[in-house]
Specification:
Layout lengths: L2 E3 L10 E5 L2 E4 L5 H12 L5 E2 L1 H8 L12 E5 L11 E5 L7 E3 L2 E3 L2 H11 L2 H13 L5 H6 L1 H6 L2 H6 L7 H7 L8 H8 L2
Parallel strand pairs: 5-6
Antiparallel strand pairs: 1-3, 2-3, 4-5, 7-8
Length: 193
């Protein structure tokens, strides 16, 4: 077992490191990042799911280099009791479709994850994630272009510029070298612990 939950006054044991109050992961977990997210999932409502860069990592989307100290990002259903914990940002949202399970964890719909990324990442970084989702067939261009909210938040050329034929994030960087990543300085302070 790579995670353990405890109640007030209980100890997890020396083999476990705390992730948050009442949730711990095993020191020797084969996949420490997954174990950490499983620990987070144990303290979230059962219908919560991971989103934004947390979900993008789980989905294997191409992302820019990220700082090591980003918070874990989760989406709660509308009306859910707020969850406030250090190292976690949980916000209420109405998903566009059903969540998906990735490595045993609930993940927001891919279109919702991309919308979050497009709001906070610079165009080039967001385009890498969009192309990656298209390449993996996690989303379709039609679905992206139907999303009025995404088109309002992201330059319309981003949707037209995306292409599922991209082979890697480096291919994307070469193709779109005219775009810049200036918006990254805005994102990181909001997502760091």
């Amino acid at each position: 077992m790579d995670t353990r939950t405890t109640r007030s006054g209980q100890r997890a044991g020396a083999a476990y490191v705390p992730v948050t109050r009442g949730a711990h992961r095993h020191r020797g977990a084969r996949a420490p990042e997954l174990a950490t997210l499983r620990a987070w999932a144990s303290v979230l409502p059962s219908d919560a799911c991971f989103t934004h860069v947390t979900a993008a990592r789980l989905l294997g989307l191409w992302l820019p280099p990220l700082p090591a100290d980003l918070v874990t990002l989760a989406a709660l259903p509308p009306g859910a009791h707020p969850v406030r914990r250090r190292g976690l940002r949980a916000s209420r949202s109405l998903p566009s479709e059903a969540h998906r399970m990735v490595q045993g964890l609930r993940v927001a719909p891919t279109a919702d994850v991309l919308l979050c990324l497009c709001r906070d990442l610079a165009d080039l970084d967001a385009l890498m994630a969009v192309d990656s989702a298209l390449h993996q067939e996690l989303v379709t261009v039609d679905l992206l272009l139907r999303s009025d909210e995404m088109l309002a938040d992201v330059d319309r050329s981003l949707g037209r510029a995306s292409d599922r034929r991209r082979l890697s994030s480096w291919h994307e960087l070469l193709r779109t070298s005219a775009l810049t990543s200036a918006g990254r300085d805005v994102l990181w302070p909001r997502l760091q612990k």
